[in-house]
């Protein structure tokens, strides 16, 4: 069985993260708004690198997917699963 990387291991370096943003014509504020973080946090990620989870979110942005926001249907489905349905 393959070993799993620790959650805090960087999936993309800071340089790779910045290259991704610039090559797509985005500024830090635009990326921050999509990710739901501050532009300062984006700047920090561009210095320190990002985890696999953030890299996956950037890939979703690449594909034009909107950020996930739970709908009432999502909450209802969760409640129904808890009741044995």
Structural account:
By secondary structure, this protein is mostly helical. The protein has one domain: 434 Repressor (Amino-terminal Domain) (Orthogonal Bundle), CATH 1.10.260. 59% of the residues lie in helices and 0% in strands. The chain contains 5 helices and no strands. It has helices at residues 14-23, 28-35, 39-48, 52-62, 72-82. The longest helix has 11 residues, at 52-62. The radius of gyration is 16 Å and the shape is elongated.
SSE map:
Elements: H1 14-23, H2 28-35, H3 39-48, H4 52-62, H5 72-82
Give the oligomeric state.
single chain
CATH class: Mainly Alpha
Strand content: under 5%
Q: Uncertain spans, ≥5 residues at pLDDT below 50?
A: none
Notable traits:
single chain; mainly alpha; 434 Repressor (Amino-terminal Domain)
How would you summarize what this structure contains?
By secondary structure, the chain is mostly helical. Helices cover 59% and strands 0% of the residues. The protein contains five helices and no strands.
């Amino acid at each position: 069985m393959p070993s799993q990387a620790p959650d805090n291991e960087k999936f993309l370096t800071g340089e790779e993260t910045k290259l991704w943003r610039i090559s797509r014509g985005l500024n830090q504020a635009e990326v921050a708004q999509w990710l739901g973080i501050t532009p300062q946090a984006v700047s920090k990620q561009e210095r320190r690198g990002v985890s696999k989870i953030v890299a996956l979110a950037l890939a979703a942005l690449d594909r034009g997917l909107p950020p996930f926001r739970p709908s009432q249907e999502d909450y209802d489905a969760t409640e129904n699963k808890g009741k044995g349905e």
